[in-house]
């Protein structure tokens, strides 16, 4: 009550913020007359002058009105598109690092050009993030007319481009690309060995188009670069056959709300009998337990042509929010292999994570982040909590006149789809265009079959027929056109009404089911009523729809039975629609919890990732004196930690054996058998290692530092990869700590930190182990014999060599004199060949 009175007196927070932006619009408009007088060639000159002013310390906020006026005029001259005042407001909101919620058709693509140009003046690059390659390419070319007119460069990052092409694109003032490409390039850059191989610059400013789709919907799936693991794939087929032998509720339970499955006690016993195991939950059998549950999930929770399709002998994921295929993406944790076994296609080897990051943590690395979409207000809390982004609702250029009708609810699917087909037929006959939104490929094809029987011409847009997407959507507003589409999130193409359609009532949106997210429903509705166009929308529901079935259809079913309604009769009531929205809110809250939990766990990994990636960059950029300091530090810390064992509780003989073995293993100071009789003091060991490294440094001065850099990065990457696997395993089982009255998240942080510390020690040891096994050898080239020119090469005692500019590959063994395994090694180490170069 008090809040309502306050809003009446002072306006909402959104209204107060918009009121503060009005003077900015007035200042932009005040520049328009002078800007109109400029010649075309004056624009790049003005932009160059403004760039210089930014370098000299002038703030972007101060020059915003002038820059916006220049961009507006550039749009008018190059594309005959002049920014409306509300679009100027949207541009100011984006420059402030906020989310601008703008209705469909309000020109978000054009709005972005305003803050993009302003922030490009810093020379640090601006990223515009889109949901697919088509939109990235289209928007870069389309809006590129404005940027090039102003003297700015534009690049596009697309799937399949080479590193050289990517580097050029990122070097431009403005770079368009998809969230996946930006994120994967960041991960790939942090797997490279030389600074000149990096493609991305520092992350300065990004504007995310369809921000809710990218930062909310896709945030449940982290970006992962993986390599093939060594595990056998045969177990997936075995577990797939076991699922067929399990009996419904007696052996397992399925929780569709939580998207989880569990074995009952009888089910556990049944599995043990089939597998011939004494105890399925014995730690030794954890792999069987895991694979059985993944096979159950594949069969009971994941539906073909809904969650995935089988195409060209492969299981391809369908994006649940956009309905698009996601080739190359795989479900993790063995689930994808379980689906392949279920569908009888080739089961690919399971992958091991090499690098990963969530979208949340990637986009939070930008110095400034902004976004735009038609529907963000329903997720405002999450944007604020996760990304510290405020949502601002921008007023429309023209008043919205679309009519949103209450939902109609039928008893079952058959009655609902018959009513939908009848409604489509009537609208088609009247000449009104209809866009039918479905939640799955299966439903879109079923409805297509029904309309074909009624001889109603129509187009189908889903993951199986997405090639002509832009063309199909663009024609959806023509007279009598019927279009069936899976979820319309982020389609990015306006539906323009054809001739005579406005008079008929405009485009009608017909939803065949409510999505679990209100936002997706609003995006579908938003395809009609653009720029003040007429239009209407209505959702058709059934009591056995997934959302209705999971959330409260029992009460409605009882009401319909009491009223004596037949199957083909429907309820139409706004109270019912509100009840459905409440169910959607509960699902949205549940999904938010899932994303928050993912982020909570990834925050631990993110701290570690930041340390490792920062160290990689430091190593890549380090000069000789910095590298020398690193070697000294690594040697000192490793030896001091090793000699600390001499003061342990072990017996004297055990201590000396341990230290001797480690000195031999890490520093190659002599045979462990010999060392244990006379372990050198700490100072002597340091001196011996120092002498060994000095010999290498003086013998190969031009190569030594690059070789050390190579070994250090190689050791870091190998141990980081192993650490990621260990962290995956830790996370899989950490939930069980709750049974011991311990907080799983805190336990994950604590144990993860211990694993991380161990990894840092292994990185140092691995690098020193490789470096201390290098041997110098002088070779005389036959071609240069007359000049007696000699070349020093570095021989690795482990059986390979490193050149002056080592590449990221395994060293190649050189031809050596033939010696027996037990003979002394010809490299002069004093060791047997089998324990030196022949190992």
TrEMBL record:
<dbReference type="GO" id="GO:0046872">
    <property type="term" value="F:metal ion binding"/>
</dbReference>
<protein>
    <recommendedName>
        <fullName>Protein translocase subunit SecA</fullName>
        <ecNumber>7.4.2.8</ecNumber>
    </recommendedName>
</protein>
<comment type="similarity">
    <text>Belongs to the SecA family.</text>
</comment>
<dbReference type="InterPro" id="IPR014001">
    <property type="entry name" value="Helicase_ATP-bd"/>
</dbReference>
<comment type="subunit">
    <text>Monomer and homodimer. Part of the essential Sec protein translocation apparatus which comprises SecA, SecYEG and auxiliary proteins SecDF. Other proteins may also be involved.</text>
</comment>
<dbReference type="InterPro" id="IPR044722">
    <property type="entry name" value="SecA_SF2_C"/>
</dbReference>
<keyword id="KW-0963">Cytoplasm</keyword>
<dbReference type="InterPro" id="IPR000185">
    <property type="entry name" value="SecA"/>
</dbReference>
<dbReference type="GO" id="GO:0017038">
    <property type="term" value="P:protein import"/>
</dbReference>
<comment type="function">
    <text>Part of the Sec protein translocase complex. Interacts with the SecYEG preprotein conducting channel. Has a central role in coupling the hydrolysis of ATP to the transfer of proteins into and across the cell membrane, serving as an ATP-driven molecular motor driving the stepwise translocation of polypeptide chains across the membrane.</text>
</comment>
<dbReference type="InterPro" id="IPR014018">
    <property type="entry name" value="SecA_motor_DEAD"/>
</dbReference>
<dbReference type="GO" id="GO:0005829">
    <property type="term" value="C:cytosol"/>
</dbReference>
<dbReference type="GO" id="GO:0006605">
    <property type="term" value="P:protein targeting"/>
</dbReference>
<dbReference type="GO" id="GO:0065002">
    <property type="term" value="P:intracellular protein transmembrane transport"/>
</dbReference>
<feature type="domain" description="SecA family profile">
    <location>
        <begin position="3"/>
        <end position="572"/>
    </location>
</feature>
<keyword id="KW-0813">Transport</keyword>
<dbReference type="Pfam" id="PF02810">
    <property type="entry name" value="SEC-C"/>
</dbReference>
<dbReference type="InterPro" id="IPR001650">
    <property type="entry name" value="Helicase_C-like"/>
</dbReference>
<keyword id="KW-0547">Nucleotide-binding</keyword>
<dbReference type="Pfam" id="PF01043">
    <property type="entry name" value="SecA_PP_bind"/>
</dbReference>
<keyword id="KW-0479">Metal-binding</keyword>
<dbReference type="Pfam" id="PF21090">
    <property type="entry name" value="P-loop_SecA"/>
</dbReference>
<feature type="domain" description="Helicase C-terminal">
    <location>
        <begin position="412"/>
        <end position="588"/>
    </location>
</feature>
<dbReference type="InterPro" id="IPR011130">
    <property type="entry name" value="SecA_preprotein_X-link_dom"/>
</dbReference>
<dbReference type="GO" id="GO:0005524">
    <property type="term" value="F:ATP binding"/>
</dbReference>
<keyword id="KW-0862">Zinc</keyword>
<keyword id="KW-1278">Translocase</keyword>
<dbReference type="InterPro" id="IPR036266">
    <property type="entry name" value="SecA_Wing/Scaffold_sf"/>
</dbReference>
<feature type="binding site">
    <location>
        <position position="494"/>
    </location>
    <ligand>
        <name>ATP</name>
    </ligand>
</feature>
<dbReference type="InterPro" id="IPR036670">
    <property type="entry name" value="SecA_X-link_sf"/>
</dbReference>
<dbReference type="InterPro" id="IPR027417">
    <property type="entry name" value="P-loop_NTPase"/>
</dbReference>
<dbReference type="GO" id="GO:0008564">
    <property type="term" value="F:protein-exporting ATPase activity"/>
</dbReference>
<dbReference type="InterPro" id="IPR011116">
    <property type="entry name" value="SecA_Wing/Scaffold"/>
</dbReference>
<dbReference type="InterPro" id="IPR020937">
    <property type="entry name" value="SecA_CS"/>
</dbReference>
<dbReference type="Pfam" id="PF07516">
    <property type="entry name" value="SecA_SW"/>
</dbReference>
<dbReference type="GO" id="GO:0005886">
    <property type="term" value="C:plasma membrane"/>
</dbReference>
<dbReference type="GO" id="GO:0031522">
    <property type="term" value="C:cell envelope Sec protein transport complex"/>
</dbReference>
<keyword id="KW-0653">Protein transport</keyword>
<keyword id="KW-0067">ATP-binding</keyword>
<feature type="compositionally biased region" description="Basic and acidic residues">
    <location>
        <begin position="805"/>
        <end position="821"/>
    </location>
</feature>
<feature type="region of interest" description="Disordered">
    <location>
        <begin position="787"/>
        <end position="829"/>
    </location>
</feature>
<dbReference type="Pfam" id="PF07517">
    <property type="entry name" value="SecA_DEAD"/>
</dbReference>
């Amino acid at each position: 009550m008090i809040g309502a009175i306050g809003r009446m007196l002072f306006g909402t927070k959104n209204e107060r913020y918009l009121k503060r932006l009005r003077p900015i619009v007035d200042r932009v408009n005040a520049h328009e007359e002078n800007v109109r007088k400029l010649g075309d060639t004056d624009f790049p000159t003005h932009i160059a002058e403004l760039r210089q002013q930014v370098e000299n310390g002038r703030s972007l906020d101060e020059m915003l009105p002038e820059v916006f006026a220049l961009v507006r005029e550039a749009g008018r001259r190059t594309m005959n598109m002049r920014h409306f005042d509300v679009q100027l407001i949207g541009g100011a909101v984006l420059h402030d690092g906020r989310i601008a919620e703008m209705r469909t058709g309000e020109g978000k693509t054009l709005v972005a050009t305003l803050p993009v140009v302003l922030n490009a003046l810093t020379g640090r690059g601006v990223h515009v993030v889109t949901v697919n390659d088509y939109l990235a390419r289209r928007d870069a070319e389309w809006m590129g007319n404005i940027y090039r007119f102003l003297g700015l460069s534009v690049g596009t990052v697309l799937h399949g481009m080479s590193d050289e092409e990517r580097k050029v694109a990122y070097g431009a003032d403005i770079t368009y690309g998809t969230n996946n490409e930006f994120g994967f390039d960041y991960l790939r850059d942090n797997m490279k060995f030389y600074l000149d191989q990096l493609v991305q610059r520092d992350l300065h400013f990004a504007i995310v188009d369809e921000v809710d789709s990218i930062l909310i919907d896709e945030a449940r799936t982290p970006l992962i670069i993986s390599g093939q693991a060594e595990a056998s794939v045969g177990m997936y087929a075995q577990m797939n056959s076991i699922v067929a032998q399990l009996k419904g509720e007696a052996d397992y339970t399925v929780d569709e709300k939580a998207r989880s499955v569990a074995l009952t006690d009888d089910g556990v016993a049944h599995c043990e009998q089939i597998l011939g195991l004494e105890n399925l939950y014995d730690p030794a059998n954890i792999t069987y337990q895991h694979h059985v549950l993944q096979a159950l999930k594949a069969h009971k929770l994941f539906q073909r042509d809904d969650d995935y399709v089988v195409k060209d002998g492969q299981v391809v994921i369908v994006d649940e929010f956009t309905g698009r295929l996601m080739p190359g993406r795989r479900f993790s944790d063995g689930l994808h292999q379980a689906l392949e076994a279920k569908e009888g296609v080739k089961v690919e080897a399971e992958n091991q994570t090499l690098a990963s990051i969530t979208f949340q943590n990637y986009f939070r690395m930008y110095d400034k982040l902004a976004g735009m979409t038609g529907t963000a207000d329903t997720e405002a809390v999450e944007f604020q909590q996760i990304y510290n982004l405020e949502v601002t609702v921008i007023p429309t250029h023209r008043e919205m006149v679309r009519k949103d009708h209450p939902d109609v609810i039928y008893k079952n699917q058959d009655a609902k789809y018959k009513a939908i087909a009848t409604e489509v037929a009537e609208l088609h006959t009247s000449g009104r265009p209809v866009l039918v939104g479905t939640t799955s490929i299966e439903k879109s094809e079923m409805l297509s079959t029904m309309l074909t029987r009624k001889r109603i011409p129509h187009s189908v847009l889903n993951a199986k027929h997405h090639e002509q997407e832009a063309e199909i959507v663009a024609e959806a507003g023509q007279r009598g056109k019927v279009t069936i589409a899976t979820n319309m999130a982020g389609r990015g193409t306006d539906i323009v009404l054809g001739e005579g359609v406005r008079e008929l009532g405009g485009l009608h949106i017909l939803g065949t089911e409510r999505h679990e997210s209100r936002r997706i429903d609003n995006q579908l509705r938003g395809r009609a009523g653009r720029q003040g166009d007429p239009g209407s929308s209505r959702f058709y529901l059934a009591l056995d729809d997934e959302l209705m079935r999971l959330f409260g259809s029992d009460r409605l079913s009882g009401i319909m039975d009491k009223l004596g309604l037949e199957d083909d009769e429907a309820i139409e009531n706004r109270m019912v629609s509100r009840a459905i929205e409440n169910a959607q809110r509960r699902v949205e809250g549940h999904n938010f919890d899932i994303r928050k939990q993912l982020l909570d766990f990834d925050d631990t990994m993110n701290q570690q990732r930041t340390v490792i990636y920062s160290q990689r960059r430091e190593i890549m950029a380090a000069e000789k004196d910095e590298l020398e300091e690193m070697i000294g530090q690594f040697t000192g810390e490793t030896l001091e930690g090793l000699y600390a064992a001499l003061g342990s509780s072990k017996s004297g003989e055990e201590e000396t054996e341990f230290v001797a073995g480690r000195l031999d293993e890490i520093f190659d100071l002599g045979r462990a058998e010999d060392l244990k009789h006379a372990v050198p003091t700490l100072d002597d060991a340091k001196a011996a290692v120092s002498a060994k490294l000095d010999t290498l440094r003086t013998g190969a001065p031009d190569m030594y530092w690059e070789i050390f850099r190579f070994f250090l990065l190689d050791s870091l990457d190998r141990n980081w990869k192993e650490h990621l696997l260990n962290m995956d395993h830790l996370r899989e089982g950490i939930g069980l700590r709750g049974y011991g009255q311990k907080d799983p998240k805190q336990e994950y942080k604590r144990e993860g930190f211990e694993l991380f510390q161990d990894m840092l020690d292994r990185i140092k040891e691995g690098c020193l182990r490789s470096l201390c096994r290098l041997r110098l050898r002088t070779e005389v080239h036959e071609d240069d014999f007359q000049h007696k020119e000699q070349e020093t090469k570095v021989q690795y005692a482990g059986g390979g060599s490193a050149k002056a500019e080592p590449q990221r590959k395994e060293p190649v063994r050189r031809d050596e004199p033939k010696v027996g395994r037990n003979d002394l090694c010809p490299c002069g180490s004093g060791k047997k060949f089998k324990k030196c170069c022949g190992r």
